[in-house]
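Protein Record: Sequence and Backbone Structure Tokens
======================================================
Tokens: labelled as protein backbone structure tokens, with as many entries as the chain has residues.
Task: work out the structure tokens from the sequence, keeping to the layout shown below.
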Amino acid sequence: MQTRQAKARLRMVEYRGRVSASMIYDNLPIYDTFRLIDPDTLLGVMDYKGMEQPFFFKLHRDK
């Protein structure tokens, strides 16, 4: 995937005791952290400052 102007970057970040891939947004105080469930599914968690509970979501690869 490519874009003309980057809006976020991926970094390995420790989250809840495990190092995971996280998308860190340039202009928003948001971290989206991802963990592999299976080869076609990621579990994601959105976390930002001031949020009471993180938001969990799943991403599925189209086949």
Notes: The mean pLDDT is 92. The chain is about 0% helix and 60% strand.
